[in-house]
Amino acid sequence: MARNPGAAALRIPAPFRRRARAADRSRAEARVGRLFAYNGAMPTKPEFEALLKEAMRSGDSLRKRTLRMILAAIKLAEVERRGPLDEPGLLGVLQKEARTRQEAIADAAMDNVRYLELRFTPVALSKAENFPLAEVIDWVIEGARQAQREHGILTRLIASVNRHESVHLAAEVAQLAVDRRDSGIVGLDLAGNEANFPASPFVEVFQEARQAGLHITVHAGEWGGAGNVAQAITQLGAERIGHGVRVMEDPAVVALAHERATTFEVCITSNYQTGVVSGLAEHPVLNMLAAGLNVTLNTDDPGISQITLSDEYCLAFEKMGISLETLRQRTLAAAQAAFLPEDERQGLVASLEREFPVA
Asked: By CB distance 3.0 to 4.6 Å, which of 47, 50, 148, 344 could disulfide with 155?
């Protein structure tokens, strides 16, 4: 699995995102001349995209990563300029978003992921050029649906809203997501700057969304303390917590999360890259496991962190000493926490048990 659970797709705060993308592009451009023959002229974006498709078909992971870093930098430039570099207008931008999501699903399939939940932020996509929210959501749904068919990976979507945006927008996104439950949207997420923007204004929106049939996940306990985790669980009805690593600061919140069987979408690499922890040795995931919390391993945003879910599992095993049996248990725990109907969820668990037998 990947991203959710299998990866909390947090929108990393802008300063970290800009630094990460700038560093990615610098490294990529230093390597691109050695990897590609471009006769002294840097390829255009469409040419890079064509090369990426070729690398994905051939399984050339080095080329694929380099190209994705360059394309990520180009995409960031487009967002910061409030417009695309080419293909202007609603159709062009939404086609790009569809391609990005399809590539994410294709990458997950290549990484042997069996079930994928992707977060997306409709408001951010809508604001690029004042696109209608409903149309943005429908394009994302169609792109994910097409990629699911092409790559044979079960995929669902989680609509995400940001704390710094208005409650009115959050309510609109929530209702649009509820209306599209039969089209693949399974959950609602609250993300954004938890240090400066409280979750309390969004309580009613999330309670109503859960009553209407959406699952709830909330980013909390990453840049804010354990109290944010408690609020997400008790007031917003969160079944899963994105990151949540600061839960260990308060034994009472640890006990609450244990009692409610709350699932934590932990992203070790992302937490290190964004400075939430100063090093792997300081990451609280081992303490969370020892406390009996329902921990899953996730990639956050693979395009920014430049990792796969397999990379994250290898890191946990090789660098942090988490045993293969524990990783097996965490994989099954992720499947149990999937935002799927009970019969589909148990079918997923059973298939993973067959593929990942007890050693």
From this structure: 148
How large is the average pLDDT for residues 1-15?
Answer: 37
Which one from 194, 222, 239, 265 is the annotated catalytic residue? 222
Of 294, 290, 295, 212, the C-alpha closest to 260 is 294
104 φ, ψ (degrees, to nearest 5): -60, -40
CB 306 within 8 A of CB 294: no
The answer as to whether 63 is a domain residue is no
Specify the pairing of strand 240-243 against strand 215-220: parallel
Alpha helices, DSSP H, located in 111-166: 122-127, 133-151
**CATH code for the domain of 298:** 3.20.20.140
Tally of CB atoms within 10 A around 336:
18
Give residue-wise pLDDT tens across range 298-323: 998 887 788 899 999 999 999 999 99
Q: What is the pLDDT, as a whole number, of residue 99? A: 63
Asked whether residue 83 is domain-assigned, the answer is no
* Residues 253-290: tens digit of each pLDDT: 999 999 999 999 999 999 988 888 988 889 999 999 99
Higher-confidence residue: 221 or 3? 221
Which range of residues forms the domain containing residue 266?
A: 90-355
Catalytic annotation on 97?
no
Taking residue 188's Cβ as centre, other Cβ atoms within 10 Å add up to 29
In this prediction the pTM is 0.75
Give the chain's domain count: 1
Distance CA 35, CA 48 (A): 12
Dihedral of the CA atoms 92, 98, 101, 102 (nearest 10)?
-120
